[in-house]
Amino acid sequence: MSEPTRAEVCVVACAEAWRGDGAILAGPMALIPRLGARLAQLTFSPELVLSDGEATLVRGDTVEGWLPYRAVFQVVASGRRHAMMGASQLDRYGNQNISCIGDWARPSAQLLGVRGAPGNTINHVVSYWVPRHSPRTFVSSVDMVSGVGYDRAATLGAPGNRFHEIRTVVTDLAVLDFATPDRSMRLRSVHPGVTTDEVVRATGFPLAVAAEVSQTRSPTPDELTLIRDRLDPRGLREKELP
Q1: How many Å apart are CA 72 and CA 55, to the nearest integer?
Q2: How far apart are CA 188 and CA 168, in angstroms?
Q3: Beta bridge partners of 187
Q4: Orientation angle between helical segments 31-42 and 6-17, nearest 10 degrees
Q5: What are phi and psi of 202, to 5 degrees?
Q6: What is the full DSSP assignment across the chain?
Q7: Which whole-number Å values give the CA distances from 193 to 38, 96, 173, in the listed order?
Q8: pTM across the whole model
Q9: d(CA 207, CA 199)
Q10: What is the Cα–Cα distance from 21 to 182, expressed in whole angstroms?
Q11: Which of 123, 130, 114, 164 is closest to 139 using CA atoms?
Q12: DSSP-derived secondary structure for 70-134
């Protein structure tokens, strides 16, 4: 068996975001996070609930339930979901932008719009997947707030922020979190072959660095077999990284 690729390390890093979540609805919003959620469900998080992207709840290749669109909002509002979204911009407190680049009144680029990001970040756990770690994405200040970061959630106060948690940011270089006294972003681990300095240079704001930066774990042989033979035999994961 060949060595794990960077994409396969990212799949496992995404899977780890759902470790210990129990019976909640996973909401992966790109291929590598979806592979990660499916891997977690098949291995160390068997209670994790996954949909096919529409209304069918699935476990591996088996249909195990039905969740109509109208019922999703009940799950979201009760905090029983953990979504992994993307981000066009993220700042040091986890404020996310997927709406526009430039001044809101006259943006240089129109993106998706805020979509469900405000409700997701206030109502349940959120993580982020960023396939290209660069200063263009990790910025000192986002051009528009779509997803709510820790500074704004703190201003909101209880009970409005009772479900707010940004657990993990996974990129093509590293895993980051917000385990700092002021809830600013921290480098937790670097992927195999990546240095701490590379991640710091690719981040557009002062990045907190853990006292001991570990190496992101690689897939086990069993996990690698699942990824390559069952979850993504066509190897589409490799196309999601730059």
Answers
A1: 9
A2: 9
A3: 176, 209
A4: 60
A5: -90, 5
A6: -PPPPHHHHHHHHHHHHTTT--S-EEEE-SHHHHHHHHHHHHTT-TT-BEE-SSSEEEETTEEEEE--HHHHHHHHHTT-EEEEE--SEE-TT--EE-SEES-TTS-SEE-S-STTHHHHHHHSEEEEEESS--TTTB-SS-SS-SB--HHHHHHH-TTTTTT-EEEEEEESSEEEE--STT---EEEEE-TT--HHHHHHT-SSPPEEEEEEEEPPPPPHHHHHIIIIII-TT-GGGGG--
A7: 26, 28, 9
A8: 0.95
A9: 9
A10: 24
A11: 130
A12: HHHHHHHHTT-EEEEE--SEE-TT--EE-SEES-TTS-SEE-S-STTHHHHHHHSEEEEEESS--
Q: Express each pLDDT in 155-192 by its tens digit.
A: 998 888 999 999 999 999 999 999 999 999 999 999 99
CB 109 within 8 A of CB 151: no
Tokens 């066009």 locate to 88
Q: How far apart are CA 132 and CA 242, in angstroms?
A: 6
66-123: pLDDT as tens digits: 888 888 888 888 889 999 999 999 999 999 999 999 998 899 999 999 999 999 999 9
d(CA 52, CA 49): 10
In sequence order, the β-bridge partners of residue 31 are none
CB 199 within 8 A of CB 188: no
Structure tokens at 138: 């990790």
